[in-house]
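User: Design a sequence. Structure:
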């Protein structure tokens, strides 16, 4: 799953990332790009990501995104 997440990040941000890269602090993701990423992840994993859940706690690293998606799929 993490490889798919990193590929989706690469598609929206045009940057390759590692599992623990800080996506916002490093400037890889902006507020606009994270919404694009969330939409892409919704389609890929057949989940719904409410705007209120697009937070640093859920989206600041690929690992945290994976944890978030795993919780959504339960």
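Assistant: Done.
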């Amino acid at each position: 799953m993490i490889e798919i997440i990193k590929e989706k990040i690469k598609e929206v941000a045009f940057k390759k990332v590692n599992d623990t890269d800080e996506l916002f602090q490093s400037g890889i993701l902006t507020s606009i790009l994270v919404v694009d990423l969330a939409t892409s992840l919704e389609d890929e994993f057949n989940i719904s990501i409410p705007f209120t859940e697009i937070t640093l706690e859920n989206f600041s690293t690929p690992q945290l995104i994976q944890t978030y998606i795993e919780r959504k799929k339960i």
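Residues 39 and 49 are 8 Å apart (CA to CA). Residues 31-45 form the longest helix (15 residues).
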